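User: Here's a structure from my thesis project, written as structure tokens. My advisor, Dr. K., wants to see whether a designed sequence matches the one we expressed. Can you design one independently, without my sequence as a hint?
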């Protein structure tokens, strides 16, 4: 009897300890830039799913202009658009972005940016699709909790495989910059950032 009881307590205690370590790791790495900065002051973009990364760019207050659209709009270079429209432009186009996801980005941009200057929306076939109002997201998922006005509810949703993987990417990127061991993660992060801001 004591053997089973001990086995259960060790199993439960081990599971709680693993969850606690993962929660602290995610909180300290802040993989989506939506939590208070505990370890790193600046946010490193390491995830390829833009739906999770773009809210922090909007809330950073660095940009007053944006491009929103699907992957074809990613070809629009913010630097070139700044010469035409002025302002500080960021490209927030989403790979395979559905109309609803683009709408949520535009809505967040208009709510969070104090004085929006320019908002370009790349209208393509997803906006005209008959199922645009029912097929709202892709298999990549959409984090509604990152697009609301309540930042406290983000903590509840952060303990997941996507956050752990992205937190690992942040750690690898930061370790490479601190130790100078690997430049690959740094180049990847810079390339992603450059694609969004050029």
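Assistant: Designed independently from the structure alone:
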């Amino acid at each position: 009897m004591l053997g089973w009881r001990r086995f259960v307590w060790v199993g439960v205690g081990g599971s709680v300890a693993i969850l606690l370590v993962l929660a602290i790791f995610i909180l300290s790495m802040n993989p989506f830039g939506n939590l208070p900065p505990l370890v790193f002051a600046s946010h490193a973009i390491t995830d390829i799913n833009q739906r999770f990364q773009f809210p922090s760019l909007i809330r950073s207050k660095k940009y007053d202009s944006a491009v929103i659209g699907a992957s074809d709009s990613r070809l629009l270079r913010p630097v070139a658009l700044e010469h035409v429209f002025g302002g500080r432009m960021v490209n927030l186009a989403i790979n395979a972005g559905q109309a609803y996801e683009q709408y949520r980005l535009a809505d967040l941009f208009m709510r969070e940016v104090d004085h929006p200057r320019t908002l370009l929306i790349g209208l393509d076939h997803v906006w005209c699709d008959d199922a645009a109002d029912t097929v709202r997201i892709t298999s990549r998922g959409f984090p509604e909790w990152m697009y609301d006005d309540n930042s406290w509810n983000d903590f509840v949703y952060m303990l997941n495989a996507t956050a752990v993987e992205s937190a690992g990417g942040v750690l690898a990127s930061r370790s490479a910059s601190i130790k100078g061991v690997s430049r690959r993660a740094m180049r990847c992060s810079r390339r992603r950032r450059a694609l969004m801001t050029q």
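When you compare it with your expressed construct, this may help: The first strand starts at residue 65 and ends at 68.
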